[in-house]
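Internal tracking record. Fields below are filled automatically when a chain is submitted to the structure queue. Please do not edit lines marked as system-generated. If the sequence contains nonstandard residues, flag them in the REMARKS field before resubmitting.
Queue: standard
Priority: normal
Entity type: single polypeptide chain
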Amino acid sequence: MMAQSAWHAMEIDTVLKQLDTDRVQGLSEAAAADRLVQYGENELRKEQRKTAIALFANQFKSSLIIILLVATLLSALAGEALDAILITAIVVFCSFLGFIQEYRAERALDALQTMLSPSTSLLRDGARRDVLSRLVVPGDILLLEAGSRVPADARLIEAHLLKCDEAPLTGESAPVSKAVHTLPPNVPANDRKNMLFAGTATTSGRGVAVVVATGMDTELGRIAAEVAVVETEKTPLEKRTAEIGKWLGIVAVAICLLVVGVSVAREAVTGHIDPGFIMRTVLFAVALAVAAVPEALAAIVTGVLAIGMHQMAKQNALVRKMSAVETLGCTTVICTDKTGTLTKGEMTVRKIFCGGKLLDVSGVGYAPQGELTFADSSASTPQASLGLLLRAMVLCNDASLAQQDGKWVIKGDPTEAALLVAAAKAGLDQSAVKQVHPRIGEIPFTSESKCMTTLHEIEDGKRVAFMKGAPEVVLGKCSRIFANDAVIDLNEQEKVRLLEINEELAGSALRVLAIAYKELAPFPSHDESDKEQNFILLGLAGMMDPPREEAAAAIRVCNQVGIKPVMITGDHELTAMAVAKEIGIHRDGDLVLTGRDLAALADDELLKIVDKVTVYARVSPMDKLKIVRVWKARGEVVAMTGDGVNDAPALKRADIGIAMGITGTDVAREAADMVLSDDNFATIVRAIEYGRWIYDNIKKYLAYLIRCNITEVVFIGGVVLALGPKYLPLLPAAILYINLVTDGLPALALGIAPPDPDIMQRPPRDPKESVFSRDVKVFILLAMLIEIPFFYLLFFHQLGDLSRARTTVFFLFIVVELLMALNFRSLRYSIFKLPPHRWLLFAIASQVLLTAVLIQFPSIRRAFGIIQPSFSDFGILSGLDVLVFIAVLFLSMEVTKALFRRRAA
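SYSTEM-GENERATED OUTPUT FOLLOWS
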């Protein structure tokens, strides 16, 4: 193949020949498969995922773990071999649990990445296919529309008013116009107007191009090869939890150093310091520090977020950024599109106004089954005008209708598909009509122009331009009307009557398009915009997109929990109001603003009334940006939906940008934080529920973990400070084992606990609220005030028999902390109202069983510093456990939860 820099200097036919491809058929699937093997997948080289072995080895990189293992080795050399073996086994098992969590998070992120893989429209075996962008190969024929992401470097074959945003590659902010003509060989990449580059996006028009380079062979790939890999930024939640873990670690290490310092000083005074004492003291301090520092906290948060994102993806909400998960729980305003999001997206033409008559169209959905009948049975058919109107519906249209597996499906915009279906009901064959009247030019639809114009050849060499768009826009470009099979002047009185008919249809929740035509001579592309004048109006088409039942239910949930839903649409205000009222967004007294109204309002004026506006109609994408800006100025957390190229600024500005997965453009999906694979508003509300659920579970895990660890550090450190290391209440191996039992499976089970029943009945969370919130602090404080004094009382009461005291404390720690795990199933609801879920019960039962088995071995009991409890010991322990359970669980946890519930109410 030729050098990449020369493609722009070659004729199109030569390019196609060099690449051994066909502009009409594209590559065959077999040829594409062979080239995929030859050139590799169309991806930039990325950092390789860590292997399972590397992930496991990574668990031992903690400085405290390394110090502990070194101290354990020295202990073994000093003759304490059993202790050393047991401590090493516990550390390895703890590391294994950390590995399992990190491995699951990695796999969840991999699966999510696969779901988020972008796709590209191209020709394969003569048919249009949607193929994953990473499977694009040199020689593929790309079919590009406004908003398409360019997957690889390509040479243009066709370009119709095509413009590209090349800022990601060149830094140029303005879209670049593209053309197919051949350029000189020495033209720099920035000026190669006949080339498209990977990583850029089309902003308007459409085009056809042949892929000439993929992956690292693209211009973007060459740049990427020279740029160092940037580390992924952590989410605010990860940063906060890491900060909490760091400070807890500092406190724990400080306590351990204090304990060691005081112990060594005490022994120095008595003159009994020996190497064995120092070794035992250091080993104890390190074990206590390792048990106390929640090193896995940030990793667990990452894991819970990743696994939660994967679960959300299964529910059609693909979250592209982890930070969006925590923001979802704070969302207070959802600004949503109407068509396809609040409605089913299955547009059906119900009314046609043509030749001065109104026709009813029967049938629903995309099956071309139904007929056109006059609303007035005595009316006659305006054959010429109706025939031309139906032909215009087919020709001024980029959608396609086909039958697959016995079901009618569409490709393209639902509104355009509805026009095709209506024409098919009248007997028009879309393929035949398009073949007889080929398109030879076009002015694409944009959100600003609100209309689309195409140029076609018709009989006798004539050329006709067809236009469709918003009625007020199209009427402004028309000077005549086709009525009663004759073309007459369109005076102001007739325009007013047509606008009244438009409003009448819109008031019936119909979306209305006006359709017009004009015979003309061929016009050059540079003069096309001037030719959208003096058209002849053919008629109006009113179509309905029924609201989704699940969207109406989701709106009710939003209204209950204090999330304000706002509809933003390009439809007529009466159409928008009718749908908004039906699904519960618009109520009596609410305001409706049009794009024109918005343009007349300054931001500070809109700020005063924005909370009263529930419907925005006839708006442009830049209006969306203004709406987001004003809502955020009020301090609200805003979610904004979008699907078009020009929606990208609003999606980026919103706290949660939500793109449509079905109808959305590549540019919108790239700009968004979340993609709806079903384009359904109800999915947004489900995603908010998931975001709240994930955040709640992280809080549960955090509260439980810190409570357990602080209790251990303060109790054990306090005893050693008071009495010296010879009265250690727990030996190092026992400390580490308790940490394994309580911080392992039970804590992980809290991370996947089902949500509280009121999770979607609470108001949105304050985004400034720390995960280390008041309720978490209160539960930790209760441990300091109730649990720790109990442990001190119990230990000092049995101090005369140190082995028995250690045994009691050892079992009591395990029992109490496992009971706490049961109650941390919810930070708000009683254990009787919300009993533990099966995974938590399994985790606790497995730890109890493991402990019961291990203490049967005398060597393990010696390493733990405990004795085999007698029946009387178990009786005393059980009695104390019940007392602790009542004191801690009922008097503190249950009462505290009740107070929190009452305060929330």
